[in-house]
């Protein structure tokens, strides 16, 4: 007799955090309504060490990262229908040749690499900690990474202030602790540089209005392990950090550091992380810090498993931006409805299904630039989106949104579009066509939007069939004839028909 398992296969989730120093892999499955971690793995890739003065990654550093991704891929490639999310942080944020790495990474894993902003990284770190332990009413979190340090204020499970600073254990180690030398002058210089970064935080960070201070990341974990050997516990205070600094200076070189519990690969970065943490204690009114178990990868994993919640974060962001810039909600809704009605008619032929939300976000926010100046509202809108903190949005998604909004009317900016590689350019041009048509259908701000009888998509463009008679649509037809020229400059043809008769200029 064969026993058949009638239970549905559990869902698996894979989160990969591509940090400046280490890459992390977490594999989990859904078990009885919660997440059960099956496998965790870390490899010290030291990606940031490959950045030169021109912010270009060396081939050696990229190879280390790609080799790590090949190893990670073997861990979960046999899992059926696994949901996978890859996020990259500071080093790939600043690397000018990151596209070369991302293209090679995509050949190893058929999943997009999200290069997230510093604020998005800070938000995910806080959310990862919130899923790993009970937080107080008011919390302060610091995460010292390889290239950046994230500092977050939060209330319970909700982050309220997000900051990302340009100081990290890898970059500071190369700059101030050259060749492993541990001197008082080196610590002084590193702390002064970190002081400048922490002093740039908003006044909220200096209020002392928090009950719990937490530290995450490998650097803080290594410091806690050193304190455990020295004091018998992992409680971090400024006095203990200063004594640890004196001990390192007395050793004089990283090769002389003697802590049994610290990973040999982490030891060279101990001094840089310590300098940043001492500055944190000195600049902010912090008296004590404890190590947090959760981090960025847990935040990524949790949101991956709760896809609906992740989308809600983006929707909350869009709603917040719309309110901030006083968008007319009724008009935005009409343009969005028109855009999505067009989308449904062409999405399959144009292979746009994966971009539905991007079009909806762009339609909802297309008028935000009016808050600055109506004359060049589209350009102002694109600038606002490019330079705003958008929780839930990767850098790539944020820039795509900015491009659509900046080109939703008037003459398209061909230079910004032509800079994009063709696989990215084509869907954006097609989305832009739909957005511009939706705007035209609602130009008069009438009670009811104009509609099109039929929209047919082809590889070269769109065939539009208009309702009613030509006289009632005279203004709209003028707009469409002008739009034909704009679309032609983007490589798309707009064919116009009225009652099955072709319309010409």
Automatic annotation (TrEMBL):
Pfam families on file: Ppx-GppA, Ppx-GppA_III
Alphabetical keyword list: Hydrolase
Coiled-coil ranges (or none): none
SUPFAM superfamilies according to UniProt: Actin-like ATPase domain, HD-domain/PDEase-like
Domain called Ppx/GppA phosphatase N-terminal: residue spans: 26-305
UniProt xrefs under CDD domains: ASKHA_NBD_EcPPX-GppA-like
Residue ranges of domain Ppx/GppA phosphatase C-terminal in the record: 313-483
Protein name: Exopolyphosphatase
Annotated organism of origin: Shewanella salipaludis
């Amino acid at each position: 007799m064969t026993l058949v398992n009638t239970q549905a296969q559990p869902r698996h989730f894979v989160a990969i955090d591509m940090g400046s120093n280490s890459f992390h892999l977490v594999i989990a499955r859904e078990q009885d309504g919660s997440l059960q971690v099956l496998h965790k793995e870390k490899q010290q890739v030291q990606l940031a060490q490959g950045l030169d003065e021109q912010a270009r990654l060396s081939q050696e550093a990229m190879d280390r990262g790609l080799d790590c991704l090949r190893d990670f891929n073997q861990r979960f490639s046999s899992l059926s229908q696994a949901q996978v999310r890859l996020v990259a942080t500071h080093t790939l944020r600043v690397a000018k040749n990151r596209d070369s790495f991302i293209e090679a990474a995509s050949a190893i894993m058929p999943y997009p690499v999200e290069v997230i902003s510093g604020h998005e990284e800070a938000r995910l770190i806080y959310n990862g900690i919130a899923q790993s332990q009970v937080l107080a009413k008011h919390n302060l979190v610091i995460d010292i990474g390889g290239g950046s340090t994230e500092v977050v204020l939060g209330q319970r499970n909700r982050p309220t202030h997000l900051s990302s600073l340009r100081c990290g254990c890898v970059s500071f180690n190369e700059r101030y602790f050259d060749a492993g030398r541990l001197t008082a002058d080196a610590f002084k210089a590193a702390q002064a540089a970190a002081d400048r970064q922490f002093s740039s935080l908003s006044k909220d960070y200096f209020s002392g209005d928090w009950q719990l201070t937490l530290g995450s990341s490998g650097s803080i974990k290594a410091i806690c392990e050193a304190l455990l050997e020295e004091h018998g516990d992992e409680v971090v205070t400024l006095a203990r950090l200063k004594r640890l600094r004196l001990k390192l200076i007395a050793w004089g070189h990283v090769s002389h550091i003697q802590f049994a519990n610290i990973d040999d690969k982490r030891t060279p970065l101990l001094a840089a992380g310590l300098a940043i943490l001492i500055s944190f204690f000195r600049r902010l009114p912090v008296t004590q810090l404890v190590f947090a178990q959760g981090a960025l990868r847990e935040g990524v994993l949790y949101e991956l498993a709760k896809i609906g919640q992740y989308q809600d974060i983006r929707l909350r962001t869009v709603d917040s931006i719309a309110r901030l810039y006083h968008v007319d909600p009724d008009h935005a809704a009409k343009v969005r409805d028109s855009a999505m009605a067009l989308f449904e008619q062409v999405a399959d032929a144009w292979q746009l299904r994966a971009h539905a939300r991007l079009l909806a976000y762009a339609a909802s926010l297309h008028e935000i630039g009016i808050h600055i100046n109506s004359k060049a509202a589209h350009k102002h809108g694109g600038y606002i989106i490019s330079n705003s903190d958008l929780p839930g949005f990767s850098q790539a998604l944020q820039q795509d949104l900015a491009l659509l909004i900046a080109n939703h009317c008037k003459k398209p900016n061909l230079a910004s579009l032509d800079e994009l590689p063709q696989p990215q350019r084509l869907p954006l041009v097609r989305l832009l066509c739909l957005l511009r048509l939706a705007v035209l259908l609602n130009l008069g701000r009438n009670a009811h939007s104009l509609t099109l009888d039929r929209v047919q998509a082809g590889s070269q463009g769109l065939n539009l069939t208009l309702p009613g008679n030509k006289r009632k649509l005279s203004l709209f037809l003028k707009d469409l004839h002008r739009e034909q020229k704009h679309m032609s400059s983007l490589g798309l043809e707009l064919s116009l028909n009225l009652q099955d008769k072709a319309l010409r200029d």
